[in-house]
Amino acid sequence: MIDRSSLIPKFSLHHYWHQKEHFALAVDTYSQWSMFAVEDGSFEFEIAASTGVASHGEIVICPPHVPFKRTITSPLSFHFILFTWENEPLDMFTEENIFMGKIHLHDTKRLSSNYYYLRKKAEQFTPADQNLKNHILKDIWLLHCEEMNHTFSFTEIASDDHLMNKAAEYLSQYAENTLSLKSLADSLDLSPVQLTRQFFRAFACTPMDFLTSIRLQKAKNMLMETDLPLDQIADNCGYENGFYFSRVFSKKMKISPSAFRKAYRV
């Protein structure tokens, strides 16, 4: 699966709409990636199998050549953006990697600041203005990536999909145990593939990425705050042994557990 933080979005077109009451087109298809970033109001959307309602603090992303159905449910103020990826990987459009639908940003103060500057530059097109817009778009995207890589809290990321909320709550509650994706899927009357796809649509990450983030945050705290050996930390965080824990930690954090403890413990 693609590391989202390695992607760099680049503006093609930007327009700000204030208190729009209805869309001129109930469905449209764009030749580039599109983004509807909501400042106020709300709208319903359907992009392939991804559906929901987007409001303040939420952004809806649609891939190229995919029908984007939408209906305004309350007067909508939003940024309409067409963009590309500067470094789009060749496998971007495989079923495993392509993403679409709604993302939610929790740092609304920072998001509002970005929106303020986007509004100021909405109808300005000098090279300096375009550079600023690209900087803001990149900042919004990296904010999303940072929040996804941060410790997941079920209460913070609850989605419109109640079944996937149940799955996330289960993973959060039993992260320290040995968990089986198949067992979780069976309990929800889904196949593992169905669970992974539906979970990804709800939270923009796989169930195992979600679980790994929770486990690694606990491991980081234990590395910084205790003298426990790696095998014991591994056992407390749901990993079968210290070697496997160390391999997962090093891959995700780009630093070994021992080096992390040495660098961050005070």
From TrEMBL:
Single Gene Ontology MF annotation: sequence-specific DNA binding
Coiled-coil spans in chain: none
Pfam entry (one): HTH_18
Domain HTH araC/xylS-type residue range list: 165-263
SMART domains: HTH_ARAC
Assigned keywords, A-Z: DNA-binding, Transcription, Transcription regulation
Protein name: AraC family transcriptional regulator
Species whose genome carries this gene: Paenibacillus psychroresistens
